Recover the amino acids of this structure.
């Protein structure tokens, strides 16, 4: 019970109690054939006279009108909020749906898309995997990138993704020379240069666009 | 052929989840949609955990076959235990026209998510945090090699993240016979479907009315961060699946608050156990949900035996940490160790971090006016539930954000605010479906038809 309220209009000067469920029912009482509904939700404390108005709106007490006003305000508030929410979202959503859309279907749909954006080469994933597969699996693949260049780092990580299960190492270009001196050349299967210039000490490799170069140092067949 | 494989993979996941749920106790008559959504959540947990656990002893085709056998067997075990009521669902006859229309709209939206997932590529994290693990495990007979965890060069893929999502993807790869970045996105669309359906179902249980829940579930599509953004569910990020698990955990706890229903509490326990298995942040959500559960048991003077519900989640956390230690997994470098010294030296960051999180709430780009709706709905929730449910709900809503904010004090990034800016929207995603309950409660409080007048049994399970 939410407590009593007094009406000065309507059928009678009656104090009656408003159970919580009434807030949900107020509009339903306005419809024509709601006698059953009234009976079902009527609390015992309610005087029957307040409820037996059926379709006669004139007999709705002030409290009822107040409920109707609250219901109307509630509906308006939420209808406006939801409408505003949808209106603000809709342009962004329609943009996002088309922005990220590609229609190419393949097992490497995502990496191919990333590599296409980075290098301009289509179907690069399959080509790179074929190249990595031709390298001795026990040897390490050295991926060279620039730590201060996010696209270079992303490209290096994509190469690491594709080069598995080869042992691999991502190194910063600044550490390339020290890495070259520290590493046994016989243990290296390939160098992958991601948006970095090829050092003169390395032979020319296979280019994937202008910014990605793979330098195999010995394939399975050659071995 | 791929469609058949996909269907088989999804069916086995649903079967495992359905079987697992029936083992929780005698089946209460549930809505078919709700049952499917819950089966999906539990199924992904069961299948991924089974693959990981059995992977210690077998691999390859035997691993695949054994997990498939368990998946198919579980519903039969449940049927044996519970009898024919296992497969009895609530009929849709009691639904009104408006509810059918809203339901149809929801189905269309779910279809749209599947369609858009087909068009979009996986996002960066979707590929490099989650799919990469599934791919590597698939190429190694279903087992992630220890070398992966130890590799410094692969630490960008966050090897310490748990395996619920990657090994669900792996299950799909087993059926497809190849690692496939295209079909794997359907898993996330399934999570969206499960989330939307559960949101509607939990709302109906909580408020006693179906329409408000369906309306709110339909609105999920209009949150850019959730539906179509570069970090959304269609991009294969794990944040939305985690948020669905969290919704189920707290949602069914709220329902169990009122009714003392063992089965609802059982669902809470099952989802609670899976939270730390989905994502690293799941440990924080587990902690919050566990505290909420303990509070409910204490305040409702329920049997202390219910506290056993905390054990499976604790087991998952401990076992996974132990495994990471055992394989010498590379520790993530994003945060410095949590210590009093680090806390004191970085405490000045707290203000800017809280400011950054508050600023995120005001961003209309990823969120539109979503948080305005939630803020408005919060008042209705408090007014409607002046009992333990409000306490539990708001604690579950705000505590994770408070903990997330606190954690960034220990950020190891040179510009910690850049890290907050990068992560805050994803972290807020964790509470999005749960917070939607405020809107459904608000809509229900002004709904036109009373609960008691509904025809049929559609509100039979409501927990008013």
């Amino acid at each position: 019970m939410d407590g009593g309220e007094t009406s000065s209009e309507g059928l009678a000067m009656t104090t009656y109690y408003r159970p919580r469920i009434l807030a949900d029912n107020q509009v339903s009482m306005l419809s024509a054939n709601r006698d059953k509904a009234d009976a079902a939700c009527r609390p015992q404390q309610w005087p029957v006279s307040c409820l037996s108005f059926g379709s006669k709106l004139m007999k709705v007490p002030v409290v009822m009108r107040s409920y109707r006003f609250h219901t109307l305000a509630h509906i308006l508030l939420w209808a406006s909020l939801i409408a505003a929410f949808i209106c603000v979202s809709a342009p962004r959503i329609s943009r996002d749906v088309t922005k990220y859309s590609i229609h190419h279907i393949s097992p490497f749909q995502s990496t191919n898309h990333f590599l296409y954006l980075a290098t301009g080469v289509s179907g690069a994933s399959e080509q790179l995997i074929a190249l990595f597969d031709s390298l001795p699996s026990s040897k390490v693949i050295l991926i060279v990138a620039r730590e201060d260049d996010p696209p270079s780092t992303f490209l290096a990580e994509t190469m690491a993704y594709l080069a598995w299960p080869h042992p691999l190492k991502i190194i910063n270009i600044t550490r390339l020379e020290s890495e070259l001196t520290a590493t046994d050349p016989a243990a290296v299967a390939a160098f992958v240069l991601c948006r970095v210039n090829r050092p003169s000490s390395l032979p020319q490799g296979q280019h994937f666009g202008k910014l990605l170069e793979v330098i195999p140092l010995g394939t399975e067949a050659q071995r | 052929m791929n469609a058949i494989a996909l269907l088989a993979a999804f069916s086995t996941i649903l079967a495992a989840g359905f079987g697992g749920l029936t083992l929780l106790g005698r089946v209460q008559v549930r809505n078919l949609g709700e049952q499917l959504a819950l089966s999906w959540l539990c199924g992904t947990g069961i299948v991924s955990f089974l693959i990981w656990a059995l992977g210690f002893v077998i691999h390859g085709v035997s691993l695949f076959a054994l997990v498939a056998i368990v998946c198919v067997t579980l519903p039969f075990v449940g049927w044996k235990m519970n009898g024919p009521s296992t497969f009895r669902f609530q009929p849709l006859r009691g639904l009104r026209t408006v509810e059918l229309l809203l339901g149809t709209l929801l189905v269309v939206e779910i279809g749209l998510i599947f369609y858009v997932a087909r068009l979009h590529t996986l996002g960066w994290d979707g590929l490099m945090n989650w799919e990469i693990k599934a791919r590597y495990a698939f190429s190694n007979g279903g087992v992630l090699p220890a070398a992966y965890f130890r590799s410094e060069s692969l630490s960008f893929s966050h090897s310490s993240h748990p395996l619920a999502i990657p090994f669900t993807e792996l299950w799909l790869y087993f059926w497809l016979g190849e690692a496939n970045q295209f079909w794997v996105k359907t898993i996330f669309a399934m999570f969206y479907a499960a989330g939307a359906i559960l949101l509607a179902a939990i709302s109906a249980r909580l408020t006693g009315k179906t329409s408000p829940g369906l309306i709110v579930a339909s609105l999920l599509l209009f949150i850019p961060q959730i539906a179509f953004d570069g970090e959304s569910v269609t991009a294969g990020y794990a944040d939305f699946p985690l948020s669905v698990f969290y919704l189920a955990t707290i949602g069914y706890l709220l329902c169990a608050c009122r009714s003392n229903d063992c089965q609802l509490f059982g669902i809470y326990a099952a989802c609670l156990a899976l939270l730390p298995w989905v994502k690293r942040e799941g440990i924080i959500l587990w902690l919050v949900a566990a505290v909420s559960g303990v509070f409910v048991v204490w305040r409702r003077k329920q049997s202390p035996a219910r506290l056993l519900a905390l054990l499976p989640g604790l087991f998952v956390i401990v076992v996974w940490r132990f495994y990471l230690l055992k394989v010498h997994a590379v520790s993530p470098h994003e945060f410095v160790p949590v210590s009093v010294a680090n806390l004191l030296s970085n405490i000045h960051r707290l203000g800017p971090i809280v400011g950054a999180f508050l600023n995120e709430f005001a961003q209309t780009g990823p969120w539109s006016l979503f948080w305005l709706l939630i803020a408005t709905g919060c008042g209705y929730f408090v007014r409607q539930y002046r009992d333990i449910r409000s306490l539990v709900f708001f604690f579950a809503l705000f505590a994770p954000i408070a903990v997330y904010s606190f954690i960034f004090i220990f950020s190891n990034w040179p510009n910690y605010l850049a890290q907050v800016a990068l992560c805050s929207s994803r972290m807020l995603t964790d509470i999005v479906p749960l917070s939607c309950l405020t809107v459904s409660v608000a809509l229900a409080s002004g709904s036109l038809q009373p609960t008691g007048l509904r025809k049929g049994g559609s509100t039979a399970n409501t927990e008013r």
